[in-house]
Protein: Zinc transport system substrate-binding protein
Amino acid sequence: MNKRTPFLSALIVSSMILVLAGCGSAAKKDSAEPAAATVAGKDKLKIETSFYPMYEFTRQVAGDLADVHLLVPAGTEPHDWEPTPKDMAAIEQADMLVYNGAGLESWVDQVVSGSDSKGMTAIEASKGLELIPGTEEEDHDHDHDAADGDAHATEAETGHEEEPAHEHEHEHEHDHGAFDPHVWLSPKLAIGEVRTIEAALSAKAPEHKAQFEKNAAAYIAKLQQLDEQYTKELSGTKRKDFVTQHAAFGYLAHTYGLTQVPIAGLSPEQEPSAQAMAEVVKFAKAHQVKTIFFETLVSSSVADTIAKEVGAKSAVLNPIEGLTAEDEANNLDYLQIMQTNLTALVKALNE
Structure:
């Protein structure tokens, strides 16, 4: 995911113009309109979040104590999304920006470093988690040892507990772009991200620390229940390997002793090479794979092609990179989609 420096530089300039214009108009409104929505007479925190899982985790922790806004619109694939001048202005005026990190949001570093807002705190939710190296096209030697991932999951689950929130001049521990960013697809690691968000909110608004901790604990209990269900239902499946459209499920596979066989690399928009497709076809035939997983938000054509070639069916395994219009219409959330993913995996792994 390449950074587009000239484009983002222009956006930064444009956003500053919008911010100044907004400040002028806001001054006129102050005498006639009340301040932003309040809780017990105090202004709510204004929080921008990069994409859906960050929005959902932040919303669950913040509760009614913050206005939480989602930057990447529903139905939009977040890997190559970039902020508009309006988005830049919203970030500039926010109290916090919560993003996943690990290379997913290629625009964040320049946006944060170019911000003149001294009060905005940028929170990298994956900070402190042990990340899995990833490349744009995965190595298709599919004789992986899935058990190697258990150490990643165990260490990552506890890695956040003592990790302090970092301000917008944050230092990066990761070489962004070199790691798999899809940590939220492991419930164990999602717990770590929720804990980081809670710590950041408590540091930003210490008067609400007890409520943030209570909200986080309630949501973490649900994630722990989800983790236990994944552990129980995936431990006894007939097979441990699954074929998926792009390499989004590495952390899930590591956590639960499975092997992900991706057709393409970390970016869902990446077209796999002919050699990669041929190797997946060979693997699927040799291992009698009966389901090829595709995902929401991008075309299923590659997965459908391989499924047809090997006599398998295709089915959805959702990387939860954003909600579709159908998801929103059905009021689905992270926990419900993860339950659907588990059902799909158990069915495919027992065929």
About this structure: Residues 1-41, 136-176 have pLDDT under 50 and may be disordered. Strands lie at 38-39, 42-43, 45-49, 66-70, 96-99, 121-124, 241-244, 259-262, 291-294, 313-316. The chain has twelve helices and ten strands. The first strand starts at residue 38 and ends at 39.
